[in-house]
Structure prediction request, 825 residues.
Amino acid sequence: MKSSSRSFSSTAGTLGDFDPRSGSLVERALFNHRLWVLLLCLATTLFLGYQSSRIELNASFEKMIPTQHPYIANYLEQQKELTGLGNALRIAVVNKQGDIYDAAYLKTLQELSDQIYLLPGVDRAFMKSLWTPATRWVAVTEDGLDGGPVIPDDYDASPSSLGALKRNVQLSNEIGQLVAFDQTSSIIYVPLLERTPDGQPLNYAALSEQLESLRGQYQSEQIDIRITGFAKKVGDLIAGLKQILLFFAVAILITTAVLYWYTRCVRSTVLVVFCSLVAVVWQLGLLPLLGYELDPYSVLVPFLVFAIGMSHGAQKMNGIMQDIGRGMHRVVAARFTFRRLFLAGLTALLCDAVGFAVLMIIQIQVIQDLAVIASIGVAVLIFTNLILLPVLLSYVGVSGRAAQLSLKSEQAEHAGQRRHAFWRFLDLFTRRRWAALCIALSLALAALGFIVSLQLNIGDLDAGAPELRADSRYNQDDAYLTRHYGASSDLFAVMIKTPPSACARYDILSKVDALDWQLRALPGVDSTNSLALLNRRVLVGLSEGNPKWYELQNNQAVLNMITASAPRGLYNEDCSLLTLYAYLTDHKAQTLTRLVEHVEQFAAANNTDEVQFLLAAGNAGIEAATNIVVKQSNREMLFWVYGAVILLCLITFRSWRATLCAVIPLMLTSILCEALMVWLNIGVKVATLPVIALGVGIGVDYALYVMSILLGHMRQGVSLSEAYYRALVSTGKVVMLTGVTLAIGVGTWILSPIKFQADMGVLLAFMFVWNMVGALVLLPALAYFLLPVSKASAAGQPANLMHSATSSAERPQLSTATPLHRSAG
Prediction:
């Protein structure tokens, strides 16, 4: 920004001598009409504060899957034929004092099944338990095939009817699916609709609370209730994430305390925290107006907005505090600080916004919503922390003691004292030997980190729900179902399209049979089910149990007869779609990748015009598609975020050398963060994919604030050492303050019961700290080799050139008024 010559006068520090017509058009519009700015912000805060009370916390199954991926497109196209293969609950009712053939147990199971049947969002036509009519048994008798519902029509809880039930269960082929292997529990299978009958999206938080209420109602010394499924997992996440308010409060207390410790000024500390909270209020108020709601992944974004606001607010407060300490009037100090740091702050916020907005390329709506929500938050920071905060400080100022304290380093230097030992240490990185050593060490860390990052996995690396703690109730329930049932909660389904009425043809079933056998042999596949497998089993039954007949017979009449009585879950109504189920031992990335690759190879070799093997349905199939999208998006996302950050830095600095100094430390942090994910056994998935992009966007703030001041002084002919020291005592020490403070703030997330929140806390804390270290250590080391020495410095101009300027009011203007758009050389 340019300023008039009047701003360079030594008397410009007093309000009477300050020319209000100086500065840019934006500065004059804001500071010459300060009252209107405050009234407008007050009205906006009141309006959006009211709107924020309408914000909702919910989730959507379809928003969390890549609906444009071919696998998901196949699933959605056949969704009406595959009801229950996407979003479903599995509720295990356990008899802790016996088996399921107990009258009291069966009565409890019936009552619970009836109540679940009436819950909103349940796809009642496809719900299944021992008590539903669709659960049937089939047997071969001397009169031919016989069958009926598993619960006898004349069931009366007598010993004879219990015996009949036991016989029916043995004949139903439900052991391992609806009935546990040890027959001490049975499943209530509950497919869910995306919308309730009244057209409203399914409320997962409310559904989870209803399930917990039923668990509390029916669980006793005899009965245990185990619940798994997407809806319950999301419900538990939402319940756990309500504790984020506690972590948010702790983060506010920590940052406020550290900021006050640094400033020793109550009014400025309160204003910085207040403006950052106003940004959060504006963000939350805009969401319902724009039709957005928070979900388990975007609920952490308001804290990131608060953290970014604290970082920028502390820089503005520090600049005003130092200028007031040099004798300026608070209004003049606010305007000079606005001139000096607005461009750097705006560029930093644009980089933050780009870091968020680039997530839009990931074709998963929950991540795209996160990108929009975060971008809205960053946009409001331009008004609350770059504009509102300086205007407020121009009214209230800072305490005199705090203003003098902010210049402690300068005053000590003018008094002839040595610089602080820590500043002298950091200054070493502006010397050849230490700069070369720092760069060499960084290269070694980058190489080591890159080698380790090659082992980074895509997807979940743990069984159960990795978003929750291993000892959470949900993961304990999931582990129980995995141990006691062959049909695990991780279901992968292959869809086989055929011509109408052709699904029972021998040539088609033989291909399905071949794939069935191959999948069963794969590691990670516990069991399978298909129409071809059913034909084998029934043929054995029709042959008096002789295992010699356990073969798919090339007899179309027999195949048609068996298909006619087969469950509809194996084929659709017009016999044009078959479903091959693979029940997995887990949904780890390696298991899903192995399965997908095998099916893809089989499909490529066996697909014809009449038969197509399509991927994929079931929760594991959907997760496999999600992993593929995440893997494709990971590098593409980093390419775009770094491309945008580099472009913005080039526009700001007009120097490719300065841009390299700012960006290379970010790249090192990204590499080391991926290595850390490998070490902590964290995979790249929907919950963690945004972290690296966010870390780049937020981390560049530090480099921008340091480089803008350093570059401004170097362009005045100051040596690198002196320019770096001036950057340290102005913006650099605030970079240290915010880096450490925000790392501590997000570090408290490690205590969260939600594991993915804890993982994000660790990764963000790591990136905050390393980006800070990079900006303070690696940046000056790179500057030594990349930024050319000015002619004035090369000619032997004294290193204390700026000392005389710092003694007068001209000093801040000198670094401020220097246009940052000239080349650094």
The chain is about 60% helix and 5% strand. Confidence is low (pLDDT under 50) at residues 1-12, 791-825.
